[in-house]
Hints:
The chain is 46% helix and 19% strand. It is an alpha+beta fold. Residues 189-287 form the HTH araC/xylS-type domain. GO terms for molecular function: DNA-binding transcription factor activity; sequence-specific DNA binding.
Amino acid sequence: MKSNIPVYDIQNFSAYKNDGILVNRFGHYARQHQHLHNAHRHSFYHLVFFTKGSGKQQIDFKAFDVSPNMIYFMIPGQVHSWDFETEPDGYLINFSTSYFSALLLKQEYLDKFNFFSGRPEEQVLLLDNVTSEKITLIFEDILKEGETATAINDDLVRVLLLRIFIEVARTTLSKDHQELNPYNHTILKNFQQLIEQNFTKLRLPKQYAELLYITPNHLNALCNDFLATSAGKLIRDRILLEAKRLLINLDLRVSEIAEKLNFEDQSYFVKFFKKYEGTTPDKFRKQYITIS
C-alpha cells in the first residue's frame, strides 16, 4: 500500500489556551508525536529552538544537522522530517497564519524576516551563546503564560514571540544584508515575491526584469552579488521545489504534475527534472514514499 505524506493542521494538536498557537518543550512534543519524525507537512508556521540533541532533519528535501543553539523556522506548506541520534530538547511553537492578525495591521509583517522566506538555507540558524540565553528566557516566559490559571493574555504572548523573531534577526544579519541599500533590497524582495506568484507562468529572468522595470543584466547582477546565485536559478529552484511537493502526492500522475507546472508535455518535464535533480520524477517519488 502506498501512503502520501500527511498534512497537519494546527487543530490536530492540543492547544495552548488558544486555538491559534501551540507552545511546548520540544522533548515532550517529540515523544508525544512520534509520527511527526517522518516526512510531513503542516498548514501553520512552525519553529523549534534546540537546547540539546543531535541528528538530522530535512526541510523541503534539504538536509541539516541538529545541534544545541540551532533554531529553525518553517512556513505553511513545507515538507519536514527529523532523524535524531541523541535525545533532543528545547522549545517548539506552532502558530496559525492568522495568529498575528489581531495585533498587526501589516499582515505581511513576517515577510520582513529572512527566516520566513521559505528558503531552507535561510531558515536554519546556529545562534551564539548570548542570543541563545536571551531567547531561552523569552521561551520560558511564554511557557509560564500558558501555565497560569487566569485567562491567557494573547497579546503578551504575541509580543514575546515577535521579540524572539527580532532578537534572532538582529544577530543573524549578514554583512551583505547590512550593506544592501533599500532600493536593491526592495528589488530583490519584489523579485522573490514575483517568482512565488508567477513561477508556473514566467520562466525567464527577462520576464521578471520587465515587471521590475530594470534590465535582465541588472537583475542577474543583484542576485549574484547579494544572493550568490543567478536569477535563472532562483526561478528554476522554485519550479523544482513545487515539482517535488507535487510528486509526494500519489493522487497525481507525473503527466498531471507536468500540466500543473505548465510544461508542454510530460517528456519535457521529465527532461527538465532530471537535468537539474540528476534523477527522474518517478525515482525521486520512490525515495520519499513508502511502498509496502
